[in-house]
Amino acid sequence: MRRAFEIHREKGGSKGSGSSLWRSTIYRGVVLTFIALMLLPSVSTQAQELKELLEKVRQTYSDANRLHIKMHVKVYEGTSQDAEKLLDQVADIKKQATNYHYSFGEIRLLMNTQYQVVVDELSKKIMVASRDPSTEEQLADPFQMNLDSIFRLYDNPVLESSEDDMRTYRLDQSEGPISSVKLTLNTRAYTLKELSYTYRGGQYAVIEFLVFDIQPKFDAGEFQESKYVQLRAGTWHPATRLPGYEVIMN
In degrees rounded to 5, what are phi and psi of residue 59? Predict the structure, then answer.
């Protein structure tokens, strides 16, 4: 499946390639932030409180058999209000048991109990691969990873604001491309509301969680591969609504 994403990465020289780089940077940043936050030392009351809140957020996520998360991702050239906007897109993630349906920009990813399907709308390519959820490891919960080898990335958190059920913390990093992270959590529902990153190069990124639903209702065909491909006479073809797409078997 890694090759499916490389289809997207290999396109160079276009405006979209810059956005592609920021997309991968932002998502790596989200996962690494989650992991790093779970490693925060318990040397201050605020650090302990944040660890407890994040553990409850993790539990909310891991306990949900069904999950729908929608995130608005914006990246700016600088922190000023008139800074150039490098990226402005919505990521949509739907999960039911081991089934996933994800979209971000021109990329679609669908995973059910039989198949993995990646669609790149820009290159009009569809990658199809067999899937066995019982044997795979690539979707392991990042909160459950072995963290022994990961050092503490952030200094102690600072509680910047607390109003009703919302708390905002700031975490500073003395080294690396990200200088600080802010996160806003709902302390009643134990969900994330917003993440923002300030980069040493001057860029600024905001991820707003528009939807964090642990009891969503999905359409009957939400996780069916027929959304994107059809198997006819032993050969995969693009769905009728996707004319001109090339299907590649992995």
Answer: -65, -40
Kindly list the structural domains of the chain, giving each domain's residue range(s) and its CATH number in brackets, ordered by start: 2-249 (2.50.20.10)
* Helical segments of the chain, H only: 2-9, 15-37, 45-63
Separation of alpha carbons 136 and 127, rounded Å: 18
The number of residues making up the chain comes to: 250
CA distance 180 to 47: 15
Pairing of strands 125-130, 246-249: parallel
Instruction: Identify which has the larger pLDDT, 217 or 48.
Output: 217
Average pLDDT for residues 22-42, to the nearest whole number? 48
Mean pLDDT in residue range 23-43 = 48
- Residue 7 to residues 26, 68, 150, 164, Cα–Cα distance (Å): 19, 27, 30, 46
pTM: 0.73
**Assigned token pair, 10:** 């290999």
In which residue are the tokens 């039911």 written?
A: 96
Looking up tokens 């919302």 gives: 166
pLDDT in tens, 90-131: 999 999 999 999 999 899 999 999 999 999 999 999 999 999
Any residues with CB less than 8 A from the CB of 167 and at least 6 apart, and which? 53, 159, 161, 184, 185, 187
Predicted local distance difference test score (pLDDT) of residue 225: 97
